Amino acid sequence: MKRNAKHKPLSPGAILAFGLLGSSLLPAQEKPLSSQAWMNSSLTPEARTALLLPQMTLDEKIAVVHGLDDVDHGTAVAPAGHAKIASGAVGYVPDIPRLGIPALQIADAAVGVTKGAWSARYSTPLPSALCEASAWDNDLSFEKGALLGRELKDAGFNMSLAGGTNIARDPRNGRNFEYLGEDPVLAGTLVGQAGRGVQSQGVIGDIKHFAVNDQETDRTTLNVVMDRRTLRETDMLAFEIGIKSSGVDSVMCAYNKYNGDYACESPELLRDVLKRDLGFKGFVISDWGATHTAVKAANAGLDMQMPGNKWFGEPLKQAVLHGEVSQARLDDMVSRILRAEFAAGLFDRKPTTQVSDIEAGMATAQRIAEEGAVLLKNDHAQLPLTAKARTILLVGGHADVGVLTGGGSSRVDGPGGNAIPATGDRAITYLRSSPLKELQARMPDTTIRFDSGDDPAKAAELAKTVDVAIVFATQYSREDRDLVDLSLPDRQDALIAAVATANPHTVVVLETGDPVTMPWLGKVPAVLEAWYPGIHGAQAIANLLTGAVSPSGKLAISFPAAEADLPHAKLFDTPKGAPEVHYTEGLKVGYKWYDAEGKHPLFAFGHGLSYSSFAYSGLKTAMSDKLHVSFTLTNTGNVAATEIAEVYATLPDGTGEPPRRLIGWRRVKLAPKQSQEVEIMVDPMLLSVFDAAKNGWSLTPGRYVIHAGGSSQSLPLEAELKVK
């Protein structure tokens, strides 16, 4: 979502138009509002919508399909006689008191409810979505969504802008930290669970950015050229799974173009795929400033312009009056919005605000950080830290005061403000959660010091004097820009190399929004990827480093050994005027690219170590209405730990598919030496190929191979499956 564009102030005419919504110039109600048929909460949302729609005037219908301008800048004022705009809102659609239609109060909430500092309101700064994805935990994603829903409602909002579902085609995408990794099945499943969680709290959920908004460079003008099969089996599959499993009532269309049309006016994306093929019953809202026309956009399937009324105000009204947009289409737009509001219960309760449960939010944040952190390397059992480490040096990453968070419209204002001396919307922000203090609290008999790392030579000299050195390395990502490359910025690679040369017991903790290259990897025995770990990030990191929690996260995105190994060695930086991208890798996204091309990533999709070890045995498969996969998982170590067991499939020859695709997983917690039978049920669609000619999924007859193991490149079990 773009937040930097300046919009024109709301015109006097527009204010008057909104004011007329409750005036005596409109048809009078014959009965009290509470006794109107559509106010009967025992009826279905569809029935209530059908009763309300005929009572609306043309002006009222037009008013429902766009919002006010400048809400996201904090300068907009609600029209007289209407609900006030909730503090921190980025979008607002005024209520229609005459008919009991509530105002829509919309907030950004990808990793927490944003703009809390506007009114000194607390909202939990959660770990990055990529951290959440690396937990592979359906229940945890639901818990996150429910937390977001509660905190949105507590702050006076009734609609969420979260649900980022764009897959990581390129690890340099500046918004990968807001998304759920490179695999569409994993991303779609988790975003669906989070959406269910949001809507369980009576808040309208959202999935975005529809579709193929896979880079920030030239995002408002970029034309993505992609065939239908590639679309449906990669980016769109994540949306399909998420939308169908969650029932979310809003989808945000993206800035970019798809096959020549802007996403927010693409009949193929909105009308044909989303509403017809996926059966989406909710409404499509534009990203901020992503509406470009009235007639084309409305007829293509866009239901709500945000922000302002430039296109879906008077121009849309005139288009309806002149037959360029049918009355039936306008009624469909309005009906979709009203049905979503009825389904969320917005007609049936008055908004109330309260202080959120801070402790509950922090507990969820810490759980995500602990489950999503990935132990990438741990040679010679360097971790967990033990009492033998009498002296420890922390280096860099402002680890004395805080943990890094991502930037852009998803940035959540942390309690107490920025932990480092930096201010402004574009400032790099650290949350006040100190790894130094948390480690000191857990290891009171160990001397733990901090060095900024600004002088690598000094840090190296200090590292020689301690038992263990821990370098905290950071990589800042944000909306509206992509990474130039995957190396750590500010010469941190040189810092790590210097410290590791001075002390062979050097641990690296990464706080990053994307993968990074690691030229120093051979010099360090242990690496922990903590991502952007949220408000209790330091507590989680300290628990993981000391063994209070055994790492269980698995990578939701591949770490390349070098950028030359990526499908595109350089991020698309297209010529000005008519930027266009052809994703020539097609179906081979992420780990599928490495498998198909015979390349070895630095760390594979699904990789993640534990303080224990696991063995897989006895794979069995059976096909009925679903594929039933079972195997035995054993904790062969001496530590209670959780393993994420992964299942992949190789499709029959001739399907043109990459070597393997993820089809299922299960988080399994085991005591030392404990064994458990693991059962996973797989929807046949996940074994299918999209047939563009038939516009549907097809299960190809032939020989399938089912694989099970601990990562996409560590699959010790396989079994054949024949499908007739």
Topology:
Blueprint: H1 12-19, H2 45-52, H3 58-64, E1 91-93, E2 104-108, H4 129-133, H5 138-154, E3 159-161, H6 184-199, E4 207-210, E5 223-225, H7 228-233, H8 235-246, E6 250-253, E7 257-258, E8 261-262, H9 267-277, E9 283-286, H10 295-300, H11 314-321, H12 327-343, H13 358-372, E10 374-378, E11 391-395, E12 403-404, E13 430-431, H14 435-442, E14 447-451, H15 456-463, E15 468-475, H16 492-502, E16 506-512, E17 526-529, H17 537-546, E18 580-582, H18 591-597, E19 614-623, E20 627-635, E21 641-650, E22 661-670, E23 675-682, E24 689-691, E25 696-698, E26 702-709, E27 717-723
Parallel strand pairs: 2-3, 4-6, 5-7, 5-18, 6-9, 11-14, 11-15, 15-16, 16-17
Antiparallel strand pairs: 1-2, 7-8, 10-17, 12-13, 19-20, 20-23, 21-22, 21-26, 24-25, 26-27
Helix pairs in contact: 2-12, 5-6, 5-13, 6-8, 13-17, 14-17, 15-16
Number of domain modules:
3
Per CATH, the superfamily of the largest domain is: Glycoside hydrolase, family 3, N-terminal domain
- Major sheet, described briefly? 6 strands, mixed
Basic shape: globular
* CATH architectural name of the largest domain: Alpha-Beta Barrel
What's the quaternary structure here?
single chain
What structural category arises from helix and sheet content?
A: alpha/beta
CATH class assignment of the largest domain: Alpha Beta
How would you state the average pLDDT, rounded? 94
**What is the number of beta strands?**
27
What's the tally of helices? 18
Share of residues in helices = 10-25%
Strand order of the largest sheet: 10-17-16-15-11-14
Radius of gyration: 26 Å
N-C termini distance? 46 Å
The fraction of residues assigned to DSSP E strands is 15-25%
Query: What's the CATH topology name of the largest domain?
Result: TIM Barrel
Uncertain ranges: 3-28
Protein name: Beta-glucosidase
Keywords: Carbohydrate metabolism, Glycosidase, Hydrolase, Signal
Pfam families: Fn3-like, Glyco_hydro_3, Glyco_hydro_3_C
Family: Belongs to the glycosyl hydrolase 3 family.
